[in-house]
Design goal:
Blueprint: E1 9-14, H1 17-30, E2 35-40, H2 56-71, E3 78-86, E4 97-99, E5 113-116, E6 120-123, H3 126-144, E7 148-149, E8 153-161, H4 164-169, H5 176-192, H6 195-201, H7 213-220, E9 230-231, H8 233-242
Parallel strand pairs: 1-2, 1-3, 3-8, 4-6
Antiparallel strand pairs: 5-6, 7-8, 8-9
Helix pairs in contact: 1-5
């Protein structure tokens, strides 16, 4: 009896558990020609002060290596590694990082950073946010121009701006409880009709950066565009469709 060949692994690297909950089942339904896996980074590697810019590609590669080791995969078993990050408005001019202490409307705000699509990032420590932004910019620039990761596995980087909740719910400052609740709701909706995800992400109101990978990154890095509600994940779906991997 002939054995069915193993499906190639499509590994998604995401920042948190709610990202996996929101997208995991839908991606498995949409990409049935691949073995869909999610690996949670437990944070944003591109904004981690402990990871030097020069080491970011190596760090992402190490995460893929560790995942492969735990799952007993070899590099040849992978179709692609896709990393999804939040922009956190990190590409705005420094002048749009504002001092929260000068805004009476935010005097009682419980977090150190507030994202305002109209004005910028309000922060209790603007200098720290500016430093984070510059760090994130430099790391993203390295990752988005990296075509291969860990033993030459194809690699792509995509963004949600300013974050996943901003893209799907137009709420850039969601609480932890809201993120968990909304992720569960989105999972329930998309598991029944995963094509909704493709249609939404590819819609003109979200795919503001166009259908070109490099062009979509140039868009989000320009001016105050990373304050906008948008994503370039549509480019992933375009590529998957071209490769015959997308069931839609």
């Amino acid at each position: 009896m002939a054995h069915r060949s193993r499906l190639k692994v499509l590994l998604f690297l995401v920042e948190g558990a709610t990202d996996k909950t929101s997208l995991g089942l839908a991606m498995s339904r949409l990409l049935s020609q691949s073995d869909i896996r999610f690996e949670i980074m437990d944070g944003d590697l591109t904004a981690d002060f402990h990871i030097p810019t020069t080491d970011i590609i190596k760090e992402v590669g190490n995460r893929v290596r560790d995942f492969a080791g735990r799952q007993h995969f070899e590099a040849k078993d992978f179709y692609k590694v896709v990393q999804i990050i939040d922009t956190d408005a990190a590409f705005i001019p420094d002048t749009q990082v504002l001092d929260m202490t000068g805004n009476p409307e935010l005097s009682d705000y419980g977090k150190g950073v507030y994202y305002d699509p109209a004005s910028g990032i309000w922060a209790r420590n603007p200098g720290s946010v500016i430093y984070r932004n510059h760090l994130k910019q430099a790391k993203v620039n390295r990752l988005r121009t990296c075509a291969k990761i860990y033993r030459s596995i194809p690699y792509e980087l995509y963004y949600m701006s300013m974050n996943l909740e901003h893209v799907f719910y137009n709420v850039p400052n969601a609480s932890r409880d809201e993120k968990v609740s909304w992720a569960n709701q989105l999972e329930d909706i998309l598991v029944e009709n995963p094509q909704q995800l493709v249609h939404f992400i590819k819609s003109p109101k979200i795919a503001l950066g166009g259908n070109d990978y490099t062009g979509s990154w140039e868009f989000i890095e320009t001016g105050a565009n990373s304050l906008k509600r948008c994503s370039n994940f549509n480019v992933f779906f375009e590529k998957a469709e071209q490769d015959g991997m997308l069931f839609c």
